[in-house]
Design brief:
By secondary structure, the chain is of the alpha+beta class. Among the domains are: 186 residues, Actin-binding Protein, T-fimbrin, domain 1, CATH 1.10.418; 93 residues, no CATH class; 66 residues, no CATH class; 127 residues, no CATH class; 214 residues, 4-Layer Sandwich (Deoxyribonuclease I, Chain A), CATH 3.60.10; 39 residues, no CATH class. 54% of the residues lie in helices and 7% in strands.
């Protein structure tokens, strides 16, 4: 479109140039697949039909580009995503997006409430409705309001009935240019040649255009049509713009600056410091526009403004430079972190930041710094764009406002908490400005109480918003749990209990029912109030503890059942000593008694229930342990009392003997104080007789009790239900039955003596009658059984002889060791016997039975065993350890005939996998090395290697140390991860220089104040050493290596019981009572001996 008007004061050529104004859109190349341009070479000439078809296809592509341009421009204005260009025409028919576009540039003419079906739900459900035409009319009215020429306006039917959709698209392009000039919308971009469409999309659009037969409007002439509306003053503007373009083409910065400052150019926000940047920016834009114009249209169709920059484009480039300079200043202020500099940069007119407030500068700095850091993390090093700056400023304003409102709300909450009104606290918590999580009104008292408690504990006396948020979130979760408890709803209880906001720990899904029961009971006990978080956690913890104890007790019962089936007292004791068993008063010495009573209780329970697989409960186990302890205590007290009686008899003090005979533990019947001398005499005589009959060297005695046989050591005053190894009863020790017999005999004799006259008369008459009766019967019987009597006598004599023979054979069999010892003609000397291991086995066996250090030891190592090859058949087995692993001295290899030889006992309860790795017997050293694989060993340790060494005092220590070092290096190359231990009698040899990575554990003297027996190991601080009594008459002390780390065992509380004992004054008073008693009264009142005995016994009990 060409506008010709007369202008005064302008030359003809310049006037013609000014008056020819055409504003168009540049057309680019054609990036269409398979595109054949008209500018082909002569070899590729097209026919007329092909050229016509190519032209139609080019028109379809151009129209698709215009649709894409309109789509993107509308998306930039509306902030919504529109359908693809091929579907855009159909999407515009309901007028919703057009009406929203009208609201964008003319909100007063088209408010949002007037838009029909703004969410397009009716359109999607029912299709087009007639009321959708109102939306199109709103758009047309808005264009009239802003002043867009009516020549561009489409009709309503062009859009609603799709009669002329290209005209609607043409109008959108004209509207975009017009609004851009008014500064109401962004500039529409030329996308011709920059977007690609498929052949199918182009063909479909070509068919649509052919279907409606509509002539395509000239989009490039929109600028010229708009120019017809310009006034004379606006022509002066274009003259100034033309001068700017010519100055930009010449590249003269000064001329460009002067042309830009021309008032007729109506340019704003010029900055003198940026003139050179303006020149470069405008020159690039001018060159790019000229290139687009040259590629778009033929020379005849071009006008000036297809190559020259318009006033709007110049102003746009100036604004871009100003904006770029301003954002760089903002970026520099962000890097320096200065609030004042940042606020000054944001207030620059080029940025046009809305809503800036000086008091919000700290929030601006924080928000913009965060946005800049986020941009850098995304890989973008450019400064923030104005849109990003405005968005950050809006967010900072919102945060500042929210922070202010939040502080006021928090202050109100703290003030409410200082009062006793929970409803006021609830109203303050419900205030949305406090930015707290959901608050439950029914838990107002809970919120007030718990938050008030937190406020009192706070150092500043006021709670902050973060603290309130966490506390309210947790209290709301606690309130939900209470609500579920009141309803007894397991499902909601589980959800609320496992909520992360509740903060409750150690919740197990399989215990949810028990949690519910426990907390419901706790809530009923505490009253009508809600349970606090601490009460909920305590309830959960108590349930977990009970469940864990039940599980542990179940495992203990399983272990105990297995131990009972295996019949091992040690395993039974281990199960009972577990802390989780809960069994109290477990005494390790009573392990065998526990096994006996528990097995009996299990068998009895199976008989009563009729179930062979019946198992004991913890109550049954505790009762069995209690009974076993009582029986052991009762047996031990009885044995001690019996020992006291024997000691008193040996001392020959009648009063002392009488006192111990009256001990309740003896349970003797018929003890009389008047017979004390007789008791002493008879018991002493019995001791003399027993001394002549048997052996009195054994320290063990056997005591028969109502609960079984109890074995008592008279020297150590200790007892056990287990029969000691090699037990021999001390024949000089009086038993309870023997003492009772003596007491009964003496008391009975005294009773007879007191009634001697009556008894003599009675006995005489009775004996006479009985004698005569037996005599007559006997005579009659003998007369009738003479032959049978002779036969019986012969058989009886034979039986007596055979019994004597069997008893002799049995005696010799029982004392075969004594018989063997007296067989050699020359007995060994004491010096030879005291070092031999054969003489130490019994003592070692006794130590294993009675001393826990021996019994629980994993390995027992002995050097200088004095064993020889003919001793291989000798029984050196120890109960609980079995046969030793031996290395006897070879006299030919060592050249020595005395001492030497090593052996090891390995506890089978600790390890059964034993491999002999090496054995050395040389003049310098006797060595035995074994590898062990215990039952319980860390996964990273494959085995243990123990080496037992004996080095003769006169051996070459250096050679011995070299042999040990060579052996250790060879074994470590085979198993480098295994711990190694070297122990034995080293005498003067030391491995400290040869094996520097080994540690020596023995620190106590082993012989005559010196440390000759050593133990080396690769584990630092593994053991500590204790000296123990030597075996037999050995001059070496036994060394006990105890691990430094030991797991703690549960120990029961010490129970103290008071035992009443007769005082000396009480006994003296009782004796005086007996002496002053007139016993004739009892004799006169009784007619027979049984009645007299009962009367006297009753009298004694009465006293």
């Amino acid at each position: 479109m060409v506008l010709r008007r007369a202008m005064g004061g302008v030359t003809g050529s310049l006037a013609n140039q000014i008056l020819r104004i055409t504003v168009g859109v540049a057309i680019g190349s054609h990036p269409i697949r398979g595109w054949r341009d008209f500018s082909n070479s002569d070899d590729e000439r097209l026919t007329a039909d092909e050229m016509d078809q190519q032209r139609i296809q080019n028109v379809a592509y151009q129209y698709l580009c215009r649709l894409e341009e309109a789509k993107r421009w509308m998306e930039a204005c509306l902030g919504e995503e529109l359908p693809a260009p091929t579907d855009l025409e159909e999407g515009l028919r309901n007028g919703v997006w057009l009406a929203k576009l009208a609201h964008h540039f003319s909100p007063k003419t088209t408010p949002l409430r007037k838009i029909y079906d703004s969410d397009q739900n009716r359109y999607k459900a029912q299709g087009l409705q007639f009321r959708h035409t109102d939306n199109i009319n709103h758009w047309r009215n808005a264009m009239v309001q802003v002043g867009l020429p009516t020549i561009f306006h489409p009709e309503t039917t062009d859009i609603y009935d799709r009669k002329n959709m290209p005209r609607a698209v043409y109008c959108i392009h004209a509207l975009s240019m017009y609004l851009f000039r008014l500064g109401l919308a962004p500039q529409i971009h030329d996308l011709y040649g920059k977007v690609q469409f498929t052949e199918e999309e182009i063909d479909n659009m070509k068919l649509e255009l052919d279907k409606y037969g509509i002539q395509m409007p000239s989009f490039s002439k929109i600028g010229g049509l708009l120019a017809n509306e310009l006034s004379v003053d606006q022509a002066a503007v274009h003259a100034a713009v033309l001068a700017i373009n010519e100055a930009v083409v010449r590249g003269d910065v000064g001329a460009t600056a002067q042309a830009l400052r021309n008032p007729n150019a109506m340019l704003e926000h010029l900055q003198g410091a940026l003139v050179a940047v303006y020149q470069e920016m405008l020159q690039q834009a001018r060159t790019a526009k000229a290139h687009r114009a040259a590629a778009g249209c033929s020379r005849a169709e071009k006008d000036m403004y297809e190559e020259y920059l318009s006033q709007t484009e110049i102003q746009d480039n100036i604004n871009k430079v100003n904006v770029r300079s301003a954002v760089e200043m903002v970026d520099e202020a962000l890097e320096s972190g200065q609030e004042v500099a940042l606020l000054s940069a944001l207030q620059l007119p080029a940025l046009d930041m809305q809503g800036l407030r000086v008091e919000h500068s700290p929030w601006y700095l924080e928000q913009l710094t965060s946005a800049r850091q986020h941009s850098l993390e995304q890989g973008c090093v450019d400064p923030l764009e104005p849109e990003e700056l405005q968005q950050s400023i809006n967010l900072a304003n919102q945060e500042a406002l929210c922070s202010s409102n939040m502080q006021d709300a928090v202050r109100c909450i703290n003030e409410a908490l200082q009062r006793a009104d929970s409803r006021q606290t609830l109203r303050c918590l419900l205030n949305s400005d406090a930015m707290l999580p959901d608050v439950l009104p029914f838990a107002a008292a809970l919120y007030h109480q718990q938050l008030q408690l937190l406020q009192r504990q706070h150092p500043q006396g006021e709670l902050q918003q973060e603290e309130l948020y966490i506390a309210v979130e947790m209290l709301s979760a606690v309130a939900m749990v209470n609500q579920a408890l009141e309803a007894k709803d397991l499902r909601s209880f589980c959800c609320s209990l496992r909520s992360p906001t509740a903060g409750l720990s150690d919740i197990h899904d399989d215990l949810l029912h028990r949690y519910l029961e426990e907390l419901v009971g706790l809530k009923s006990r505490t009253g009508r109030g809600l349970l606090t978080w601490n009460q909920l956690q305590e309830g959960i913890t108590s349930v977990n503890i009970i469940a864990e104890e039940d599980q542990q007790r179940f495992l203990v019962l399983e272990l105990l059942q297995q131990a009972l089936e295996g019949g091992d007292p040690g395993e039974v004791l281990s199960a009972l000593l577990l802390p989780s068993s809960g069994v109290e008063d477990v005494v390790p010495a009573n392990a065998s008694r526990y096994l006996h009573l528990l097995t009996h209780a299990q068998r009895l329970k199976a008989q009563r229930s009729g179930d062979p697989a019946a198992e004991l409960s913890l109550a049954d186990v505790q009762e069995a342990v209690r009974r076993a302890n009582q029986q052991t205590q009762r047996a031990l007290k009885g044995a001690l009392a019996l020992a006291a009686v024997n000691q008193a008899v040996k001392e020959g003090r009648a009063d002392q003997t009488l006192r111990v005979l009256r001990l309740p533990e003896m349970a003797l019947e018929g003890v009389a104080s008047e017979c004390s001398a007789a008791y002493q005499k008879q018991l002493s005589s019995l001791l003399c007789i027993k001394a002549q009959r048997g052996d009195s060297r054994s320290p063990w005695v056997r005591s028969q009790t109502a609960d079984g046989v109890f074995y008592f050591h008279i020297s150590r005053l200790e007892g056990s239900w287990d029969k000691p190894h090699g037990f021999t009863h001390n024949a000089l020790f009086l038993t309870n039955q023997e003492i009772q017999g003596v007491v009964s005999s003496v008391s009975r004799r005294r009773c007879w003596e007191e009634n001697e006259e009556l008894l003599v008369l009675l006995q005489a008459r009775s004996r006479g009658f009985l004698l005569r009766q037996r005599l007559s019967s006997r005579l009659l019987y003998l007369r009738s059984q003479g032959a049978a009597a002779t036969t019986i006598q012969s058989h009886w004599r034979r039986f007596v002889q055979q019994r004597a023979y069997r008893q002799r054979v049995q005696f010799l069999y029982q004392h075969w060791r004594a018989a063997v010892k007296v067989m050699p003609l020359i007995p060994p000397t004491k010096q030879q016997l005291q070092g031999e291991m054969r003489n130490k086995v019994d003592e070692l066996q006794a130590n294993v039975k009675c001393i826990p250090e021996y019994k629980n030891a994993c390995v027992i190592a002995l050097t200088e065993t004095w064993l020889k090859e003919h001793d291989l058949g000798q029984d050196l087995e120890i109960d609980g350890f079995g046969q030793p692993i031996r290395l006897d001295r070879d006299t030919q290899l060592t050249g020595k005939t005395q001492g030497g030889g090593v052996c090891l006992y390995v506890n089978p309860r600790w390890c059964k996998t034993i491999i002999i790795r090496e054995s050395i017997c040389s003049p310098h050293i006797e060595l035995l090395s074994i590898s062990l694989r215990p039952f319980y060993l860390p996964r990273e340790i494959p085995q243990l290697v123990i080496t037992l060494v004996y080095i003769h005092p006169r051996a070459n220590s250096a050679d011995a140390a070299a042999e040990i070092t060579k052996l250790v290096h060879r074994l470590q190359s085979i198993s480098p991860d295994a711990p190694y231990f070297i122990l034995g009698d080293f005498n003067t040899c030391s491995l400290k220089k040869h094996l520097g990575h080994f540690y020596q554990y023995v620190s106590c003297p082993t012989r005559h104040g010196k440390i000759l027996d050593l133990c080396y190991g690769t584990v630092k601080d593994a053991y500590k050493s204790y000296a123990m009594s030597p075996l037999g008459s050995s001059d070496h002390s036994c060394i006990f290596l105890a691990p430094i780390y030991q797991s703690a065992l549960k120990r029961g509380k010490v129970e103290r019981r008071e035992v009443s004992v007769w005082t000396y004054g009480a006994i003296k008073e009782l004796n005086g009572c007996f002496h002053s008693t007139n016993w004739d009264v009892f004799k006169d009142s009784c007619t027979d001996l049984d009645k007299l005995t009962f009367t006297v016994s009753s009298y004694i009990r009465f006293l």
